[in-house]
């Protein structure tokens, strides 16, 4: 049986990406000692380099790819704007692909971008909770990175990628604490789809803040919804069939628009009848009447920083998947602070992945009975 590049990587104790860079002549070089170790393993195992792979490793286009769930969603529009601006500053074009929040579509998009030899890929949508779907996407990205490509993620996609990490859990907890402090009780939640990691993070933040007051979120007070206006409407209708909460927390602003529409159609006043809050602070949120309480996410910055991380990795060579952490690493800390874990070193002298934690903050407006806020 022919010796593969993966066999060489395992023998040398490095990642597939590092082995490829050492043997295929990529411009994204590795250190002399590490390269010598990889070459020694290749010689010992009798590995024969693949000529087409060597050629691919030396070439890439002046294009970056950005994968997101729905460009029509203002949240993703803002993230994409930040990404395209940062790419343009680097003299690169941006290819934006919609996945519809479907992992199979995302997998096809990764393979398409790989075939197009884009310089870097940014995963701008949420990671998935399905381990099989995640493994398939990770495998496709590993093949892309083995040929010199770079990958960065927005939100948690697992430990193997440089990541821009907005504090989804901390933001949801901070908003819930602020509403509790203002006297709100009897919470209901329109959570995001269970297939997204972001949905679980935001819901965990709500539960955390309620638990601090010895309160719980009853099963009857929780509905899942797509991150869409219509999803928010349908989820609200289901909640109202079971009772009338004091406040509805929608885990995206677009969902919250649907919540408001359903309440308006039923003649229920906001905030006097039911208070409403969203998440993201899309530009529309402040212009609604009444203006929407929400959690402000630095959406443009998230897209821009992800591009910068990816391009930095493209210049240096991808990490070997040893996770580093900034300000506690994973989401779940407070809603303030944030910084970059840069140049961390993993096992065997390998650079760890970079994690840039970005702060978020609650913005209290009229839909929860607060004065107008900017």
How would you explain this protein's 3D organization?
With 374 residues, the chain is an alpha/beta fold. It folds into three domains: 5-57, Orthogonal Bundle (434 Repressor (Amino-terminal Domain)); 63-166 and 299-360, 3-Layer(aba) Sandwich (Rossmann fold); 168-295 and 363-368, Response regulator (Rossmann fold), CATH 3.40.50.2300. It is 43% helix and 14% strand. The protein has 13 helices and 13 strands. It has helices spanning 5-12, 16-24, 32-45, 51-57, 74-89, 103-115, 131-146, 168-181, 197-212, 229-242, 253-265, 284-287, 299-316; strands at 63-68, 93-98, 120-123, 150-154, 162-166, 187-191, 222-224, 247-250, 275-277, 294-296, 340-341, 355-358, 361-363. A seven-stranded mixed β-sheet has the order 2-1-3-4-5-12-11, sandwiched between helices. It has a four-stranded parallel β-sheet with strand order 7-6-8-9, with helices on both faces. Strands 10-13 form a two-stranded antiparallel sheet. Strand 1, helix 5 and strand 2 (93-98) form a beta-alpha-beta unit. Helix 1 (5-12) crosses helix 3 (32-45) and helix 6 (103-115) runs parallel beside helix 7. The model is unreliable at 320-349 (pLDDT under 50). One of its GO terms (molecular function) is DNA binding.
The spatial strand order of the largest sheet comes to 2-1-3-4-5-12-11
Residue windows where pLDDT falls under 50 for at least 5 positions? 320-349
Helices, by number, come to 13
**Number of self-contained structural domains:** 3
- The helicity comes to 40-55%
CATH class of the largest domain: Alpha Beta
CATH topology of the largest domain: Rossmann fold
**Separation, N- and C-terminal Cα atoms:** 65 Å
The CATH superfamily name of the largest domain is Response regulator
What's the helix-strand series?
A: HHHHEHEHEHEEHEHEHEHEHEHEEE
Tally of extended strands? Answer: 13
Report mean pLDDT, rounded to a whole number: 87
The secondary-structure class comes to alpha/beta
Task: Provide the β-strand percentage band.
Answer: 5-15%
CATH architectural designation of the largest domain: 3-Layer(aba) Sandwich
Main sheet characteristics: 7 strands, mixed
Rg computed from alpha carbons, rounded to a whole number of angstroms: 23 Å
**Which word captures the global form?**
elongated
